[in-house]
Design brief:
Blueprint: H1 3-20, H2 22-73
């Protein structure tokens, strides 16, 4: 019978602690979000670079194939 009461007290105490440390929690959250944005930006740059590299290789291969077909037709 006392378990719901104890659980309610624990949840209430947790809420009070979180409210009192609101600024610290908000600052830490902002810091984590900023790091996540930086990481996502870096990953996007790396992916774009890899895509460009693959496109260049495909273009070079297509040009080689076209040259081989032209020289083979003569």
């Amino acid at each position: 019978m006392a378990l719901p009461f104890i659980l309610g007290v624990a949840v209430g105490a947790g809420a009070i602690i979180a409210y009192n440390k609101n600024k610290k929690i908000q600052d830490k959250t902002d810091e984590i979000i900023e790091k996540s944005k930086d990481l996502a930006s870096d990953m996007k740059k790396n992916i774009d670079s890899a895509v460009d590299c693959v496109k260049d290789k495909i273009d070079k291969n297509e040009k080689t194939i076209v040259k081989e077909e032209k020289s083979g037709d003569s």
